[in-house]
Amino acid sequence: MPADIFHLPEGQNSSGRLPGPADLGAARRVFFQSVAMGLAGAAVIGAGTKASAQAAGISDVDIFNFALNLEYLEAEFYQRAAFGRGLQPGDIEGTGTLGMVDGGKQVQFADANIGKYAVEIANDELAHVRLLRRALGSNAVARPAIDLGFSFTLAARAAGLVGPNDTFDAFGSDMNFLLAAFIFEDVGVTAYKGAAPLISDPANLSGAARILAVEGYHAGAVRTLLYANGFYQQTQAISDARDSLDGSSDLDQGIGDANTSNIVPSDASGQVFGRTPQEVLNIVYLNPNTQPTGFFPNGLNGTLR
Amino acid sequence: MSLDFSAPAHASAGPASLDIVGGRRAFIKALGLGVAGTAVMGTVGSTQASAQALTDTDILNFALNLEYLGSEFYLRASTGSGLSDAEVSGSVGTLGPVSGGRQVPFETRYLANFANELAVDERAHLNTLRGSLGSAAIARPQIDLGAAFTFAARGAGLIGPNDTFDAFANENNFLLSAFIFEDVCVTALTGAAPLLQSKEILSVAAGFLGVEAYQAGAIRTFLTSRGFFQQAGLISAARGKLDGVGSDDQGISDGATVNISPTDVDGLAFARTPQEVLRIAYLNPQGTPNGFFPMGVNGTIR
User: Fold this and answer.
1) What are the chain B neighbours of A200 within 8 Å (beta carbons)?
2) 3-class DSSP assignment, residue A166
3) Which of B266, B270, B272, B273 is the best mutation test for A, with the most CBs of A within 10 A?
């Protein structure tokens, strides 16, 4: 189905166009096949050194460099969507291999208000990149290679948002932009939540907690906009895909339905979910085996990869 | 290795400029009258709560006070009833009643749904904290959900000095009332997280922090979609004035831009000490028990 079905007037939804659970399963199989094929044909850098990312032996520098990789991804996504340009020299160099960014363009927002959210989040994510780079100093990793083009299509196919041969343009409409943002936002929160108890220095913990809060504000806004527009099934499909990718634990939730909202993904104790670095990698790599591909075609820079 | 999260030399970017001077003046005036006319309990015994002296139990009980407030507010707004007797008892501190609050006549379905969700989440926080604290858990302190909102709204300049503000009258008032609390809970947890000794408790606090930030982001998004830029700016200015710290609170901007996430120039959410939080919850810059907690909070931090 065409990707622009997500551009809907407020208050409607396209639930009738979505595949059922069986179709979703088929889409997942196709997705994993295509990822496997991609890996088979590619020289995968760093696959042999894949970290199991256990708590022991991880330094604060390791953790914040891991976070910096994710902030590069978010900043490139939102900067391009909001302004049509990515991070500039001075904001991207560092240790590891500096990579290019593929895809991404300024979204022609039909609703100017959605564009304002994009601008705000783009500014926040740029600030996070600069803060982490400054805090890490000479230890900061360079921006790794980032794919903002076909990776979204792979993710959307896996979630069943589009058919197995369709493409998904994350920058093609207001609602595609929101759904693409949704793919990332909760992941950022769970990454910081999972990392918080691994941080050694209380001063560093304060910075992490305050970034976690900002990611939560962003994610809350994105989920609220999706909820008010009735995108229940699309978000559930993306949530299911993330949950399938990251491992066996149930660490993800959609936004609910017309009768019950779930703007805040949380467990029975009232906490947001936390993910290990490896669980986060499985999502951004778009495969459950932590093989570098997906949004980071050559993997992350740094020790957690 | 301690990374350098200190702010760079350049000046911090403040929120969009709003005409808040008049509102602030009225706020201070109203507060002065209010405190003078009230029998204030617990002032002498109030703790300065220096960071070094706080135990994890102190901090969790401090958070529990805020969860009592949030739970009672959202439960009453969404269902008309508050916490059960079993959820409010405690061997520490004095159990207090709740005044005010009733079911909000929501007109928008998704807002009514969200109010229910907020109530469920706050109640989950409360029961998690009570379970974790066990016999050390404080009782629910006295809570005012009636006059305190009028007091806060007058102080912020949302209404005139002789007007009343009914937080439960309609969904717009509910949203503005929720906004009074939500960012404060975020800053309370960002401030408390680095003070916790136990990594297990820290993980839970980070889990709560995430939830509060989602909630606050949602409330700010609803207010933005309804164009409540000036009202949110007034409330934010009042909170900033009350806590005694400059530049640690932001409204939702002016509509030309939006400001869902209140952040400093580094993209960091703000953090508040328990004292700063109490000044807002008590609705006076001296931290004298009053406002939403007429007899003060329970526990060692108060």
Assistant:
1) 1
2) coil
3) B266
Q: Å from B83 to nearest chain A CA?
A: 16
Look up residue A138 and give its amino acid. Answer: S
Instruction: Please check whether residue A239 is in contact with residue A219, taking contact to mean a CB–CB distance below 8 angstroms.
Output: no
One-letter amino acid at A5 equals I
Residues A149 and A103: beta-carbon distance below 8 Å: yes
Separate counts of helices (H) and strands (E) for chain B:
8, 2
Q: Is B4 in the A-facing interface, judged by CB distances under 8 Å?
A: yes
Local confidence pLDDT in tens for the 305 residues of chain A: 222 222 222 333 333 222 223 233 333 333 333 333 333 323 222 232 333 344 458 999 999 999 999 999 999 999 999 999 999 999 999 999 999 999 999 999 999 999 999 999 999 999 999 999 999 999 999 999 999 999 999 999 999 999 999 999 999 999 999 999 999 999 999 999 999 999 999 889 999 999 999 999 999 999 999 999 999 999 999 999 999 999 989 999 999 999 999 999 999 999 999 999 999 999 999 999 999 999 999 999 999 99
Which residue has 């004035």 as its token pair? B241
Task: Provide the whole-model pTM.
Answer: 0.84
Sole residue written with tokens 């706020």: B27
Q: Are B125 and B68 in contact (CB under 8 A)?
A: no
Instruction: Kindly give the residue spans of alpha helices, DSSP state H, lying in B193-299.
Output: 199-225, 229-242, 274-281
